[in-house]
Amino acid sequence: MQQCSEPSELRIVLVGRGKNRITSVRKILLGSSEENEKCSSGTKKCQRKEVKIRQQNVVIVETDLCNLERVSLEEEKEEVLSHAAPGPHVFLFVLSCKDRFTTPEQKAVEMFKETFSKNVTLYTMVLFTGGEELEGTIEEFVGESDLKSFVDDCKGNCHVIKNNDESPSQRTELLQHINNMVQKNGEKFYTKEKEEAEKEGKGWGVRRKVAFCVSVSALGGATLGGTVFPMLKVPFAAAIGVPVGAVAGGLLGGAGIVAVAHIKVKLHQHHHRSQYQSL
């Protein structure tokens, strides 16, 4: 794997189901550097380790997000981002080569993307543990499945580690792969502002739909008003009917698209609430 320049500080967030998996990854990353740990802080749900590995300051945030049975993880997300401030360079989503990508893992992925926004996959690497039991290549293991879809969302960024390998070379290869990914991202990192920008983009899409529907409905209302009002045989019927019809049509069109968007949001929230409660 080709080496690249490394940022002076590398901020990594560990996520996924299975506390033991995440802890094993943290131990591999820290290695013998654990004795040189600069600082440690956090809560039971979120632990921060900061170490010096070669000339690079590495921040490792170990989370329990995907093991929590919650509809909303906003509070936990804020804690994660505060420990990885000003923002994580990479999320390592930890899975196992020993297990199939079953419904609980799929729901954990959806919870992860729902919590941090779909944009988070640009900063995510899928990390497989248990590589010593992998038969064939990781590409064959991923196959044509929902797991492949998730890896593709992460731009193909995935890595395999062996649980029974305590050699420094395994950590070096993992960190090198992460640094290469960070370099390809222009050393940019995930921030809450990027999530809000994505939401704003979705909001702009709704506003454009509203504007379009208002325009079409207003045109239809104006045509109808201009036709119906003259039938009433009142003074200035046509002049009155066109603007009145346009206003009425516009209001109805705008109200309709907003109502549809509101219903979609409610259905989406209900869907995710049902998913999390079934974990």
From TrEMBL:
Transmembrane spans: 210-232, 238-263
AIG1-type G domain residues: 7-199
Name assigned to this protein: AIG1-type G domain-containing protein
Keywords of the record: GTP-binding, Membrane, Nucleotide-binding, Transmembrane, Transmembrane helix
GO MF annotations in UniProt: GTP binding
Family annotation (InterPro entries): G_AIG1, GIMA/IAN/Toc, P-loop_NTPase
Family: Belongs to the TRAFAC class TrmE-Era-EngA-EngB-Septin-like GTPase superfamily. AIG1/Toc34/Toc159-like paraseptin GTPase family. IAN subfamily.
SUPFAM superfamilies reported in the protein's UniProt record: P-loop containing nucleoside triphosphate hydrolases
Gene that encodes it: LOC127359795
The keyword Zinc appears for this protein: no
